[in-house]
Amino acid sequence: MKRIIRAGMLGGMMALMFLYAQSGTMHTEVWNEVFGLEEKKEDAAKNLSDQYIDIKTVLREAEKSIHSTQFLLQETSDGYELILYDREKKKVFSMVYPKEPWVEEVSEDVLEIGISVGSPARYTFYFRKEDGKISDTFFNAKVFGGKYIAHRPLSGNQCNDPLILTDIFEEGILYQEIYRDFSITADPMSVIYSIELTDENHIMLEYCAGEDYTVVNEVMEIENTKPDRK
Length: 230
Fold this sequence. Notes:
Blueprint: H1 2-69, E1 71-76, E2 79-85, E3 91-97, E4 102-107, E5 110-118, E6 121-128, E7 138-139, E8 142-144, E9 148-151, E10 163-167, E11 175-178, E12 192-199, E13 202-209, E14 214-221
Antiparallel strand pairs: 1-2, 2-3, 4-5, 5-6, 6-7, 8-9, 9-10, 10-11, 12-13, 13-14
């Protein structure tokens, strides 16, 4: 009888130990699951925070871009409307063109606005973002050095017409007339193959000369003064 009682007690103790162990296992599994959910929650919160930061960055960059370009080009029922704004976002220029003009940066502060009227005819003018200044309109002009422009007059007498170098906004920084034996072509500027500012006082000019259309490369000094023009 005692053996039976002892066996029963031993079985009960084993059962309790089994239940305790099982309970401990279940408790650990539940804890691990909860802990895992907490980690997932923290990761999700971090991801949302990162996305929020990224969205703010994108919006900030977009706003910065709009302010830096300072122009709006939109298609209308009449053509393409171009609007230019100063730094305070006030409208300083508005024009509707029958065909789409291009707007390009020639330097960090200067935009080129141009429209083609046939090959190789194009008209361009320039807009300075800093103060909203607008240049004259030029025919088939070439920009060099980011702040200078080269063009030739349309007088119909190419033999005597010079190549004119001036600052884009013609504020007296540069004005120079270059006379050479330029070849005669339908477009006076087509004989100017390239013009490059090599340093503050010199340019490399490549042009077409004479009746035999000889290609000439010449380095010449530029004059950073403006003579009296009448």
